[in-house]
Amino acid sequence: RSLADVQPDDVLLMQFTSGTTSYPKGVMLTHDNMLRNAAYIARRFDCRAGDRYFSARPFYHVAGSTLSLLAALASGACLASAPFFDPAEVLRVMAEEKCTLTSGNDTMFLMLLNHPDFAKYTFNLRGGWVSCGPEVSRQLVDKMNMRGLTQAYGLSEASPNVCMSHYTDDLEIRIAGWAHILDDLEVRIVDPESGKDMPPGEQGEILVRGWSVMKGYYKMPEQTAKAIDRDGWLHSGDLGVMDADGRLRFLTRLKDVFRVGGENVAPAEVEDVLHQHPAIRSEEHTS
User: Fold this and answer.
1) CA-CA distance, 178 to 283, in Å (whole number)?
2) Sign of the dihedral defined by the CA atoms of residues 123, 83, 18, 259, in that order
3) Are 210 and 242 a contacting pair, CB within 8 Å?
4) To the nearest whole number, what is the mean pLDDT of the chain?
5) Residue 46 region by backbone torsions, left for phi larger than 0, else alpha for psi between -120 and 50, else beta
6) Which helix (H) or strand (E) element contains residue 72?
7) CA 30 distance to own-chain centroid
């Protein structure tokens, strides 16, 4: 096919994900899904021409393709990466290349912050996007000067971003994990059992509808119908809450929630409390 034959609704990427099961499903993401997502989020975390954006997210993951590679392409920024996540190498590259932006999650950043070489380097970071709890986010601001950090939430089936903070939002709101829904997307918070819409401040399943929702699972119509209902709402399987201003905060996967004394408890929130203790550090490793 020639370039002129390519349409926005054509599939650009087959992103394999297990979603809520262990069986791999091919998420069909279109040119419009991915490029619009990349352009929108680049503006949210202030990625622009002249920036040096470091991302060690693997390119086979939507965080590496859409939110790293395509975000840099859409904004004209220089993208720096690494073949795998080695904390010592990441620290060295970010410092020597004078990177201004980066991205990652709790585990990755804790490995950097706790590395014995951390204090050897001076960073030029001003921000980036993160998927972290409040305690780790605050450390990034205090120790890596990422005062422009933004919080991100998404899933492969939504290509992937659903919401991201504006880098100009109040810093404490961003640290707390609140993020604005992307332009022209609809989000509902519903009771997982009844499907009833939940009021602001009440947690429920995150439902998404609009341009970022996948075309479907490759050759899996039954699985697609389970994920996207007749009204076009993608059921994320994630637990979240919205505030009165329409900001969204991701809590955890629905299947990870457990009941204690009649209350729903999210492991991610427990972990964030534990991270505040000075005797606790991450010993996890990523590949």
Assistant:
1) 27
2) negative
3) no
4) 91
5) left
6) helix 71-75
7) 19
